[in-house]
Amino acid sequence: MSWKSKLRDDPIPWLLEPENAPVRFFTLRDLLDRPADDPEMSEARAAIMSYRPIEASLEAQYPEGYWVKPGAGYSPKYRATVWQVIFLEQMGADGTDSRVRRACEYVIQHSQATSGGFAVGHSSKSPPPSLVIHCLNGNLIRALLGLGWQDDERLMQAVEWQARAITGKGELRYYKSGTTAPGFACAANGGEPCAWGAIKALRGLARVLKDRRSPLVTESIREGAEFLLSRDPAVADYPAYEGRVSSSWFRLGFPSGYVADVLQNLEVLVELGYGNDPRLQNALDWLLPKQNAQGRWKNEYAYNSKVWADIESQGEISKWVTLRALRVLKAAG
Fold it and tell me: Could you tell me which residues are beta bridge partners of residue 185?
């Protein structure tokens, strides 16, 4: 537990409080390494679907499985269909719940382009391949894998699209309106390689079990990690539209949409086995002073009033962000 020596105080008893069942469950599993059959783990898991933000999202779902309106479900942010699947998984929703499964099936049927990737569609028609982008595709791969769809061949098509789009190998067409070239180039970033897209893409690929990764997926993970490590994650001066470094990099938050922060960069890199890479040290040194005297972090990007029920308050001490930070510190040793 040497990683805890870097904390100003121990926040784990606070994270274990019962009113936030998902955080309690993840703390028991990820920080305290409790076994799956641990009674406290079982109790916390059973309470997750009663967590108010999960309940509010599912109450707004239409019987067919979508939110707001039929179709690809990208807009409006962040109440439409794709965002609900992404956020429900981040909050630990039960993938076997019939409403959650219906939502996942709806997304696969209505948000996947003929190229295999998930696209930013805005109409009721199937989204075109020209609107497939790394951030959405990676977010949905991660969410769907986390919700139990690892044996679905349609999802594996999105995984393979992701690997081809990163490496430039295999049959794939690039478009000026979406993914414009290999190596994370994206129209949303002025055609420059997008680090936010890279983080989301790698978070999706990180969920693919190692024995199920094709050689191309393994290669794409390696290329993506080297791209993220090609700049100091604490500075985040990756190629950006008009050369501006977004201030959002330095505002830690939960849940996570298409925006990424320094902590999420750390999260995916440690998940992929780079926890001891010295190139992460500056970012870890940046993260630690953001805790308060109780060893807790604030939610500085909370999506208040944009989701079906606020998860936490903007600018307030956050169990979710603290959990995120502690996972990284534990993994980085």
Answer: 181, 193
Residue type, 36: A
DSSP bridge pairs for 297: 318
- Domain ranges (residues) in the chain: 2-332
User: Distances in Å between the alpha carbon of 78 and those of 248, 309, 322?
Assistant: 17, 11, 23
User: Measured between alpha carbons, how far is 63 from 79 in angstroms, rounded to an integer?
Assistant: 16
The pLDDT tens digits for 155-171 are 999 999 999 999 999 99
Distances in Å between the alpha carbon of 326 and those of 75, 113, 227, 266?
33, 37, 25, 11
**What is the b/e burial string over 292-329, where b = at least 16 CB atoms within 10 angstroms of the residue's CB?**
eeebbbbbbbbbeeebbeebbebeebbbbbbbbbbbbb
Specify the CATH number for 2-332; select among 2.30.30, 3.30.70, 1.50.10, 2.40.10: 1.50.10
Cα–Cα distance for residue pair 31/331, rounded to 1 Å? 10
Cis before 128 (ω within 30): no
Amino acid symbol at 319: K
With CA atoms as reference, report the closest residue to 4 among 28, 32, 25, 23.
32
For 286-317, write each residue's pLDDT tens digit: 999 999 999 999 999 999 999 999 999 999 99
Q: What is the pLDDT of residues 79-104, one digit of tens each?
A: 999 999 999 999 999 999 999 999 99
Q: How far apart are CA 244 and CA 159, in angstroms?
A: 30
